[in-house]
């Protein structure tokens, strides 16, 4: 609300050795010179022909500043991620992006995994033909995403207004759901959407009184609400479970023949739930986790605690598995996929909502079975639940 290190050997160039001519000062000194030169050549030849050590499989996870994703920063900073990566003999790094840039990098296959919402997982990588698997169900937004206005503008006065948001993201979805639920669906086409990066949206809105409507997520929502005269007229607590925050992986990465993709997924699950345990357990470890996670987005601990109150974390693997295997997930995804199709977000040439299909842990499919592009997999969360990581 968010650089791939390719595995492969480096090569060393063999150096050419030539023996020096015997020294003019005498045969014995010249002979020793020849022997020394020959020995050097032999050592160099042996060193260059020795087999290279296999490089450790490396993976990069993209994340962006958001209450439910800031723990990825803590996960790396605390050493938890390295501990789990070492356990599986791999290397993992997390890399921060602006949200839209993280999606672009994932679609371009420059990173292996990325934090994103359920909607973006469907309308970005999946719609671009990148087969994608959600391996961690992190949370759902329970008030973190909001429609904010100034000058007392409500839904009855929103028609025709400019609206700042990150287009083709859950902000656009939230805006439409808000309009529909408030009986203003007929005014949707009159809104003028202004695509704005999440790194720019707060100052751009706050520094220009002519901007009257903005849709974004925390911590940006909290910053903007600090501006006198700005109010929230709708937030994601009105649509619980519809804006889900996931960790998704390229399915081709998970299916690597050497098995390193499976190890990566297991390491991420292990690291995530250890991080969640620290973040929610109380005591000194929780204090450290809150402080570092808050610092990831430049927030105070109090501000971050406030953000977490409107983040419905699936802090245990049991809770995550229960939601991911429930009929509720399918119901929410049906709303999301219909929105994406209606707004032309599923890609060029897509003539049916079923052309970008979703599969679930029970093997059921929404859409055409030969067109599955987004998969919800509980295997790694179940392994964490069963203590088998």
Automatic annotation (TrEMBL):
The keyword Transcription does not apply. SUPFAM superfamilies: Periplasmic binding protein-like II (SSF53850). The keyword Cell membrane does not apply. Keywords: Signal. Its main location: periplasm. InterPro entries: ABC_transptr_urea-assoc_sub-bd. Belongs to the bacterial solute-binding protein SsuA/TauA family. This is NitT/TauT family transport system substrate-binding protein.
């Amino acid at each position: 609300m968010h650089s791939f290190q390719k595995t492969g050997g480096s090569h060393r160039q063999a150096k050419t050795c030539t023996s020096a001519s015997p020294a003019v000062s005498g045969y014995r000194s010249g002979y020793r010179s020849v022997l020394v030169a020959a020995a050097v050549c032999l050592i160099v030849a042996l060193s260059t022909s020795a087999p290279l050590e296999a490089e450790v499989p490396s993976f990069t996870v993209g994340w962006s500043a958001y209450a439910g994703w800031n723990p990825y920063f803590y996960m790396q900073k605390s050493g938890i991620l390295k501990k789990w990566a070492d356990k599986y003999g791999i290397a993992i790094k997390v890399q921060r992006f602006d949200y839209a840039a993280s999606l672009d990098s994932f679609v371009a296959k420059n990173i292996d995994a990325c934090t994103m919402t359920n909607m973006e997982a469907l309308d970005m990588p999946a719609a671009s033909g990148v087969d994608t698997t959600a391996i961690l169900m992190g949370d759902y937004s329970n008030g973190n995403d909001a429609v904010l206005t100034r000058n007392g503008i409500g839904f009855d006065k929103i028609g025709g207004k400019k609206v700042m948001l990150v287009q083709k993201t859950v902000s656009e979805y939230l805006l439409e759901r808000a309009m529909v639920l408030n009986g203003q669906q007929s005014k949707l086409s009159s809104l003028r959407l202004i695509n704005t990066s999440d790194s720019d949206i707060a100052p751009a809105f706050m520094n220009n009184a002519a901007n009257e409507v903005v849709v974004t997520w925390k911590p940006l929502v909290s910053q903007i609400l600090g501006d006198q005269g700005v109010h929230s007229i709708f937030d994601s607590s009105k649509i619980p479970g519809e804006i889900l925050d996931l960790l998704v992986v390229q399915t081709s990465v998970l299916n690597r023949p050497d098995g390193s993709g499976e190890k990566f997924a297991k390491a991420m699950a292990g690291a995530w739930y250890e991080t969640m345990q620290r973040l929610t357990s109380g005591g000194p470890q929780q204090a450290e986790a809150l402080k570092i996670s808050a610092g990831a987005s430049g927030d105070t601990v109090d501000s971050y605690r406030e953000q977490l109150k409107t983040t419905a974390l699936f802090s245990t693997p049991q809770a995550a598995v229960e939601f991911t295997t429930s009929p509720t997930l399918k119901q929410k995804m049906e709303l999301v996929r219909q929105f994406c199709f209606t707004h032309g977000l599923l890609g060029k040439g897509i003539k049916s909502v079923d052309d970008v299909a979703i599969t679930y842990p029970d093997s059921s499919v929404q859409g055409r079975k030969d067109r599955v592009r987004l998969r919800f997999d509980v295997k790694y969360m179940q392994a964490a639940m069963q203590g088998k990581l």
